[in-house]
């Protein structure tokens, strides 16, 4: 007896069609139903989150999370109505030729996909507005709907009308997407440039009329294709190719198959990224930068956007570049490439070289545009100010930082192009689409963690614990990357392996150098050098590139990769991985933090750095007010040298840097009591030489008034003077300071004014009167205002120190307010004199 299993009914059974239009509608749904369900799933998921979570979740991360899923849903929507197919005879991507045999007029054949696309994109948009963006205020909800519907028509017109022009079609789609965003923002300009042409009443008919015109063009194009027209060799392309024939070209044979493969890959896709970059720079940024050429803030913002252009384009182009065939809609290895007399590794190397050359050309175009734009038609006031500040912070290493930063930009762009080669060359759609989906899922999980993180738990986690967790997570990532790379590169030829390991080592050393140099700011609160160096080990791609030849070989020869094929690499590779892993572990331990200790300051812990030996003890107080001060690293250029001849103590006030918050009110007396308690608990015996910068000056004056028998001298480094602050408040010179902050400032200054300097102790006041040469970006009016302010500042300092017995006034003519960073030797010499004087009085 024979048994037959019942057939499972399909999830979407195919119905019987009673008309060609119904059949065409069903086919569009059938081929894209997964994308449609995903788009609706994004909306349903975000609507559920919006309804179930409190409003604080929306304020924290909800906007970013919903924006990410909204972008994905619209990308899926336009992917659904990418209604094209590759023609094998004409080698182009156009309207499906097989539909030309349907017994319906061409206008119905073209109009139906367009109407369905417009209806679907409007449905998706209004679903987002009604179900998800309920907390947002959208002043013109109808206008984006008009723009989206019109862009859907333009999108399909470009797909069908530029079927034989691959690069031109990509550029047209990119320009259309960018211009649609600009058009959507036009009504917002009505407040800046009052004009009736920026109103929705004028813009809606124009945009709809252009959409209707585009649909007519699409109809004419498809009708021509349906009746045998639309040949690939158009008159324009024929003349273009004739002109190219007149240009010098290669006539010699290729020396090796690898050079031929490189030429092939370059001709197929190498120029796409530079061409798209040039198009964006000339067509989009060129006119915009000219229009806003007198706006310095716009110049600074646009410079960052221009630098981001290669990254954005490389991310998009890279998704096609990592496939075996750039322009193919499938991931399988074409027979033309599979039979090449090259190993899979050589093919991968050719792609990596083409990507490197393409990225290099793109960045040359970007830097060339910037080199022309900034000097000739840009207002660079804000950029010059930022660069002057950059040179001030890094007086000796600014050039190295700039060069290394350029290298990081170029190599990071190249990474976007080639890092997914293993997935694209595998031939598996699950790998190709799963990799970006996994990245999106990780980003979503991170946003959820941030959004649902309890507010009550935040103060309980000390910054040192958070830094430690991040550090060890980076250590784990570095170690896994290195050892996975040892296995991934083990089956590749030794010559290629060592070539790439050498490149990786050289580039990683550059990234590490950039991390070390960029982290050398004296006001680094959290001492993140070790985290930056660990992250530098992860920048340049290594492990996944080693897998690319294996997956390509599988796709090319239909091999089955077994675990035993991935043997362990050579001993030298293992040794290198062990050395770098050990360095990563040492960085994770962060021995630099062992120099600090935490001391009780009256119920809360403050971070303290004690160095040197001998008496008296020099105590450093940082500037700024209350718990908003600078960290102890502010004295990084002073404390080490002073520690060579006496004991020193620098600390973070409560709530500053890595110290725990302290009780209110945060006035000068409370801060002085906490410092005294901390010094006693740290067993730092008096007498103390107090050194205070900026608002730290009033703090140490209050300390000296409260504990006069324990103070042996004072150094006030460009201190805040109460008379100057009162004058500033009366003249409203600091209008950005809030009333509560003014009350806190006044409380501290009043307490300092009421304090008395202990008799007989030496007092040194250092006033910054410079810099002698002001930055070039400052106007004459700004320079005059600054010098006038500095003269007033100097007058109040001179009046105060003149009333102090044993007072000495020193002028720092090359420094402004930040004397500890620009002229630390003045402070060191002044402290040394007070230490010698204090010892001689014993």
Helical run tally: 29
Mean pLDDT: 81
Contiguous low-pLDDT stretches (5 residues minimum) are: 1-12, 560-569
Query: How many strand units?
Result: 10
Rg, Cα atoms, Å: 34 Å
Q: Percent helix among the residues?
A: 55-70%
Oligomer: single chain
Distance between the termini: 115 Å
Overall outline: elongated
Explain what the structure shows.
There is one protein chain. The strands form two sheets. The protein has an eight-stranded mixed β-sheet with strand order 3-4-6-5-7-8-9-10, with helices on both faces. A two-stranded antiparallel sheet has the order 1-2. Residues 1-12 and 560-569 have low confidence and may be disordered. Helix content is 61%, strand content 6%. Helix 3 (106-131) packs antiparallel against helix 4. It has helices at residues 20-52, 55-80, 106-131, 142-161, 166-184, 200-226, 235-246, 257-270, 272-291, 296-321, 335-338, 344-377, 381-393, 398-418, 421-424, 429-452, 463-488, 494-518, 529-536, 543-557, 571-589, 639-642, 668-681, 696-706, 722-730, 739-754, 780-802, 819-822, 824-840, and strands spanning 85-87, 92-94, 597-600, 605-611, 617-621, 647-651, 688-693, 711-717, 763-768, 807-812. The chain contains 29 helices and ten strands. Strand 1 (85-87) and strand 2 form a beta hairpin. With 842 residues, the protein is α/β, with parallel strands linked by helices. The termini are far apart.
